[in-house]
Amino acid sequence: MDDRSPAPVPPPGCPAHGSGGRVPLYGPEFAADPQAYYAYMRHYGPTAPVELAPGVEATLVTDYQTALQLLQDSGSFRKDSRHWRDLEDGKIPADSPVVPLLAYRPNCLFSDGAEHLRMRQAVTDSLSRVDPRRITRTTEQAADYLIAQFAGRGSVDLLGDYAKQLPLFVFNELFGCPADIGDRVLFGISGMFDGVNAEKATEVLLRAVWDLIALKRNRPGEDVTSWLMRHEAQLTDEEMVHQLALLLGAGAEPLRSLVGNTLHRLLTHDRYAHGGGLIEEAVDDTLWENPPIANYAAHYPVSDMEFADTRLSAGDLVLVSFAAANTGPALSAARQAGSNRAHLAWSAGPHACPSKETARHVTVTAVERLLNQVPDVELAVPEDSLTWRPGPFNRALVTLPARFTPVQPVRQQAAQVTETAAPQAAADGGPRRTGLWSQFLNWLAK
Ligand code: HEM
Prior knowledge:
By secondary structure, the chain is α+β, with helices and mostly antiparallel strands. The protein has helices at residues 28-32, 34-41, 64-71, 85-88, 99-102, 113-128, 132-150, 158-163, 166-174, 179-194, 198-218, 224-229, 237-268, 278-289, 322-326, 329-336, 356-373, 413-428, 436-445; strands at 23-24, 47-53, 56-61, 77-78, 155-157, 295-301, 305-307, 310-312, 318-321, 378-379, 401-403. The protein has one domain: CATH 1.10.630.10. Strand 7 and strand 8 form a beta hairpin. The protein is globular, with a radius of gyration of 22 Å.
């Protein structure tokens, strides 16, 4: 704790009130007003003691410069979570909700040194082969299809009916998923994040990814899966599964939140009302002030050390608050001075997001396409009735209800395809044939 600071006052509802304990980053209070928590935590100095879920203790870096120092110091910190002492010692409840996002898997996010370089190179090289025109075209097609489902209705949940689905359609195309596998990928990822039956959903996704790999080994195509597979890094099938699951899962979740959080911003801030180039600005402002991944970048000190006035032991869990670092008072001036992309929403250092250009491109295109087709879209509920999903890592709305003057869809047949495909999908039953991806492919083929 910084002695020079006035006595900190926890935000209302925060159980750290009076206890002097760790600041809990779960529960509805944190989700309702994270900035109040970040302001409170800054009184501790550049880092604060937090609890990510009951019984899961961590140190959270809230200061921008300290965050950069951590993210760039791969000599003193590891990303491989097999170094996480509390997990190794069995202190973390096996069913803790944070374990799936922190437990080790053989992909680039959890690897260090030469192993990380090898896997990351395969990812960056494969993603860089995607032609930006293909991203524009795929995003526009996915957007048109989704908009066509609600255009005539005059009302929509922009999160559930648009932001959540669009990245999945785009990924399915870029990764070369045929109808059956794509349906299961969509089912798996949606289920994993929406918690309906996360275990079943993960199983469906992994099975689908294995099938995709088998398919591309036999019949490679012009897609990210085939490029990854043929990369000189020579990923094993197991590595391929985990890399693909990381790309699909770690990509879809923040991407849907960036689309959702940007739309939220556009609908709740008058200054964007005039459209045009302001969409790009709204995306950047969202990345600064409401980043989709709010707190993450788990690191583990190699040895006992002093870091930013904090005593850390080897194997402690240390995370970065991108949301707090981006909004620190000292930074506002620098940001106004013009460095508009210096935010940490994509992280920094060797593990910075390799897909930021693609993700930004998809988001700008998706938002533009929506506003072009339903230009008078507005929030359908009072802003303060919107709720945000609880949890320490992601910043995502639960729903974003909106209304607009009904319009003719860009392509009329979309509604017909859905109507005819829906009863058939219901008759087939099961995740395999619910067929969101198949319906989209049918619509494209018309
Ligand atoms: C708006 C969307 C996105 C945001 C805000 C975002 C943000 C981030 C952040 C903060 C990290 C660092 C995490 C850490 O160090 O623990 C990261 C890493 C990563 N992201 Fe993204 N990401 C987005 C979209 C995507 C997409 C679309 C893909 C893939 C298609 C992707 C693939 C990855 C991968 C593979 C890593 C790990 C890199 C490594 O460990 O070397 N991300 N991303």
